[in-house]
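worker-03 picked up job from queue 'complexes'. Input manifest follows; two sequence lines, order preserved.
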Amino acid sequence: DTGVSQDPRHKITKRGQNVTFRCDPISEHNRLYWYRQTLGQGPEFLTYFQNEAQLEKSRLLSDRFSAERPKGSFSTLEIQRTEQGDSAMYLCASSKPKNQPQHFGDGTRLSIL
Amino acid sequence: AQKITQTQPGMFVQEKEAVTLDCTYDTSDPSYGLFWYKQPSSGEMIFLIYQGSYDQQNATEGRYSLNFQKARKSANLVISASQLGDSAMYFCAMRGEAYSGAGSYQLTFGKGTKLSVIP
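worker-03 finished. Artifact:
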């Protein structure tokens, strides 16, 4: 039973560039979550998928952010026209239905130059 | 709305001693779950323990136990027999569990406590 996998682990880019992150959940998990964690803070919820449907989005998810989960398997999170404030760790988590705990990947650390 | 408060930014504990990490919460959900996660310096969030609001007994998982006091809205983590590998950030989190169907069960996290285990 492999865990949640995220790629890349680190991403350094210039302000204004687009970036895309990938998350592969645990295979039997139908729920997938994206969180953002800035320095010294706990993770903050961004968005949630149940299978391929994106069912909830946080106010933190501006128009520059888009997430997809085609076919209900892996998910991608894209940030367009990156800004300094986007520098953070982006964490993906997955879970079985309802009351099961969420299991997290290692995260993608984004640094904006 | 849900809120998690962790009042200890940092804690020190001697190796092999027990330590308690504090967590208080606030929610309007009648049914909810409380979690503790460990985040080493490498960054991954590791699930440690879960307590449901209607569970009669406090949760335990190996060296971890959750001291759940519902009336006080507290869910403290107790780590027994601390090991050097326990040095990490520890996050308390909660979610509402009154949903049916497509409820997201998103987690709300506290700011964390940095635990340092001293040899």
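worker-03 released lock.
Chain B is about 0% helix and 50% strand.
Residues 31 and 54 of chain B are 7 Å apart (CA to CA).
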